[in-house]
Amino acid sequence: MVVRRRRKVQKMRGSRTMGGGSVKKRRGAGHKGGRGMAGSHKHKWTTIVRSGIEYFGKRGFKSVAKKAGIVKPTINVGELDQLLDRLIEKEEVRREDGKFVVEVDKLGVEKVLGRGRVTRAMKVVAKEFSKLAKEKIEGAGGEAVAG
């Protein structure tokens, strides 16, 4: 059934202020706290946060170095040593001649760096090694295979 009610516009015809109080109260953008996004970092901040507008902050472009492929995905020798137990559980590492064979490229890594300690003998297969990483791996009784 249709609701038969007069619209506010019709009801307020001829009232000059349309129910807005004094004539000065609804005049201009001062009533709204400024036009557009004015005050969005000040008095309108709670409204911005509440409505979830992603107007502020950084997002968008990727690093030029990443795009160009200059930055290679790397891993440190110490991290590999710590990850070894988890990799053994997932069966991503095999044992060969008493050494754990870790193929780093399967982990999405290109280069092995030398930070950290190596406590176990590992045969690490990667595209590249830093000089220190090679020394540490070989010092623990393992070998670094580039390939």
Spell out the key features of this protein.
single chain, 4-stranded mixed sheet, Ribosomal Protein L15, Chain: K, domain 2, alpha/beta, 147 residues
Mind summarizing the main beta sheet?
Answer: 4 strands, mixed
Helical segment count: 5
Percent of residues in helices comes to: 25-40%
Radius of gyration: 33 Å
- And the CATH topology of the largest domain? Ribosomal Protein L15, Chain: K, domain 2
- Give the overall shape, derived from the CA principal axes: rod-shaped
Beta-strand percent range: 15-25%
Helix/strand/pairing category: alpha/beta
The neighbouring-strand order within the major sheet is: 2-3-5-7
Q: Describe it for me?
A:
This protein has 147 residues and is α/β, with parallel strands linked by helices. It has 2 domains: 30-60, no CATH class; 74-146, Ribosomal Protein L15, Chain: K, domain 2. It has 5 helices and 7 strands. A hairpin with a 2-residue loop joins strand 2 (94-96) and strand 3 (99-103). It is rod-shaped, with a radius of gyration of 33 Å. The chain starts with 7 loop residues before the first helix and ends with a strand. The model has no long low-confidence stretch (mean pLDDT 87).
Provide a brief overview of the structure.
With about 150 residues, the chain is an alpha/beta fold. The protein has five helices and seven strands, in the order αααβαβββββαβ.
Architecture blueprint of SSEs:
Layout: H1 8-11, H2 45-51, H3 64-68, E1 74-76, H4 77-89, E2 94-96, E3 99-103, E4 111-113, E5 122-126, E6 128-129, H5 131-139, E7 143-146
Parallel strand pairs: 1-4, 3-5, 4-6, 5-7
Antiparallel strand pairs: 2-3
